Fold this protein.
Amino acid sequence: MSAGYHNGNFLLWFALALLIFSASIVLAENCSTSGDMDAATRLALVAAAQHDFDLVAKGDSASLRQNAIPSVAADFGAIEASVKDNQPALAGSKATARAPFLLEAEGTAAIPHAEFFCGVFGKSGQTRDSAVFYLDNLPPGNYGVVILDAPAASGARTVSLILLQQGADWKLAGLYFRVAQSAGHDSDWFIARAREFKSKGQMHNAWLYYLEARSLISPLPFMSTAATDKLYDEWQKMQPADVPADGKTVDLAAGGAAYKLIALFPGAVNTDLDLVVKYQASDISNTAQTYQNNLAVIKALVAKYPELRDAFAGVVARAVDPSGHDYGALLAMKDIK
């Protein structure tokens, strides 16, 4: 009797400890939708995002950098380049903000794998207005996510801003641009084409078109919605084993040498959809030799997967050195012999 009593107390203590531990995990990563947050916070977030968007539309990277958190301002090159690329299309555009999200990362240290579940979830998962954000090594703080829809003559775009609260201000912590169409087509078109390729047994084309559809359907690479989850459920088991993904490299024999492919994805240039292949290179300083290596990789890739001729206008090969610098070459599909 006594032993049973103590065992029951232990089980009760263990259950309470597990509940407290689980609650601590949940409390470390909280998300408020627009309807959950107070009006002052919501208005401040949207106002800060609109202000930064106006700077982007003017091409005023200097002021945008002044509005950024120190770590972003110190390494502003990538954002500055993105602003330069997108500003001509956004000049004079009036953006409309979607309902913002507020992500609260609690604690005193960066969270290795933060997950924020926002909104109402049903028995089948996400609903129309819900979202999930996945962020690695996220420092503690309050982060606002504001997505703006911006019409443009060259194609509508979404401009997404990650803002970090510092006192009464919201400072730029991330900036992302996405076009609504790629090579003149939207996500629904790429999904339909992916299914067509799948029905023909062209699984590499199907997978690559699925990747393009997925990139168009969500404005942020670390955000999932009901639409992206539905797409993922359909395609998660379709990924070919011989494509580089999730940090895994794939070997490709070309011109008597072996190359390690590190990425394979579609890339649009105006109305053309090209295939981009990135591979490891120990040195790219000899550009003449690197160019020849690029051509060898392109030809070997198309020879290995001739179905690519049905899906892409050309192939871009990029040799990437250990420092992350790359050197690329484009070959139109009609010129690949």
Remarks:
- Residues 2-28 form the longest helix (27 residues).
